[in-house]
Structure prediction request, 92 residues.
Amino acid sequence: MKSYPLNKMASTIHKLQSILPTSLHPTAITYLFNLTVKLAGTAGIRIESLSQTNSVLSLPNKKRIQNHIGGLHACSMALAAESATGILVGMK
Prediction:
């Protein structure tokens, strides 16, 4: 399979992962992502793991993103899904 040079987003994450200990990767990547995507920060999205082919995000069931029956609002779930795919597309 052909290898391509890393784009700006992928190279930033790669540098971050090469400098920080593995235990701090999710926290640092989440901070950078939420700083860039303001709504993701407001919703409290957390990036649990990230690679070139896989992203795992979590979304806490907090009052500010709940629907009228106490579950996650559909828009917050769509934000999490879009963020997971958007990160992967952004790294290509």
Q: What stands out?
A: The chain is about 50% helix and 10% strand. The two ends are 14 Å apart (CA to CA). The CA atoms of residues 6 and 12 lie 9 Å apart.
